[in-house]
Amino acid sequence: MYIRKANIYDSMGIAKVHVDVWKSAYVGIIDNVYLNELSFEKRKKSWMNQLNKGSLIYVAESKNGEIVGFATPCVERNNHKDYKGEISALYVLDKYQGQGVGRDLLVKSAKALRNSNIKSLIVWVLKDNPSCKFYESLGGVAKESKLTRIGEKDYVSIGYVWEDINILADHTCDSE
Length: 176
Prior knowledge:
Elements: E1 2-5, H1 11-25, H2 32-37, H3 40-52, E2 58-61, E3 67-75, E4 85-92, H4 101-115, E5 121-126, H5 132-137, E6 141-150, E7 153-162, H6 166-169
Parallel strand pairs: 4-5
Antiparallel strand pairs: 1-2, 2-3, 3-4, 5-7, 6-7
Helix pairs in contact: 1-3
């Protein structure tokens, strides 16, 4: 597995991971009408726009060149008083979960944020998402909550925080 910065040509691979993971991970959590309306083309356009704007996105690429996961480290989007960094998205295809791909993406993202002088980090996760245990296993502490609007409904999101980004950034990645 290889973790690298995404480029514009990765937008369809990122879109595929995004849609496929949502359609598998959020069944029974998010309204099926919303999930059924997700499309690769719309997501591709959205990710292409993000890449064109210069957003930092890391992709996990398999040995055969398939994008199997991605993460988007950024400055915290809501000017939170305590947490300056954020991972606004982290997704890994089902068949690659449990192999360290998500951890490597998260660690690489934390290192990038630390290199930008960011010392704390938050990741928002839907409360009923099974990945909550993943963030806890890497030292994330559930400290915040908010309502997140998805489609026509509100869902509770939990903010997993690392008050010291070094807890994540000092991990060794299998992909390094």
